[in-house]
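Researcher: Here's a chain I'd like modeled. Treat it as a single chain, no partners, no ligands.
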Amino acid sequence: MRFSVLVSFLLILTTISGHARAQEQFPNADFSELVSSGKARVTDVIDPLTVKLDDGRVIHLAGLNYPDFDPYQPGNLSVTAMDILKDFLLKQWVEVFQTRNKKAGRVNRMGHQIAHLRRKDDQSWVQGTIINLGLARVRTDRYNPEMASQMYALEKKARKENMGLWSVDAFKILTPEKAEQGIGSFQVVEGKILSVTMHENRVFLNFGADWKTDFTVSIPPGEIRYFSQKGYFPQSWMGKNVRVRGWLFFLNGPSIEIDHPEAIELEEGPASENQTEAQSDEENEKPKRKIFYKGSALPQPSVEHKKSQGLKSLQP
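Model: Modeled as a single isolated chain. Structure tokens:
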């Protein structure tokens, strides 16, 4: 199969191991979260995130982030992904799946349709194939959070097998202590939430004892209700190991702002992939924001939800 040979060849050129991996069945997916917006033939691959269809639509591939993608000087991963997409999609019929929300999330500012694609002949999921090969990270957004769990499962598998970008130190998951290295770029950070606080109606997830310098994740005012409506209660996350992704910027230390719950993964079990040690007693003496307690302004999970999820409200 020419596509399998091309994948193996390109992966070797870019130090991506796993010839046997290229022979596996390319992933399918459950698209029930989305709605089909028709079928068409691919006529061009513009870049690793953009393809053109014969009905005139230009498709932006939802859910992908290439850490080395620059439209003027694309890196090895981006070039490899683009070549794979050309071989995989050119002249092929695909089905287009988009968010069910007709008012937001279907078209980007360039006028491109935001969608997931499934190749018609073998039902292969395009985004799943790219993530499965370790060529891209998962990147959801407020208006396109669908397919997150399926993409994360494939990303976790690729990461475990050290595929593609996950074999490159510069692209690996950051710890809270090293988050500052990624400021000014999209990153994935993994660690333990030490406290959950609020200031001026903004929720802060603190990963260190000193919120003035340590890594922090924030949820903007007004968005916390959206989280609770989807069954996510940040005040229950204190002590949890999580993996969060977004644009890293500096605000009292390295920070990420998230506006949808799919941007954060709660790790099950006692340890995460980047488990870090708890802060010392001396560090705990540093100034911190007031911690939430039961009866705070945050929406509280119902008794039924807490029982089903094993959650407990924060206690004094």
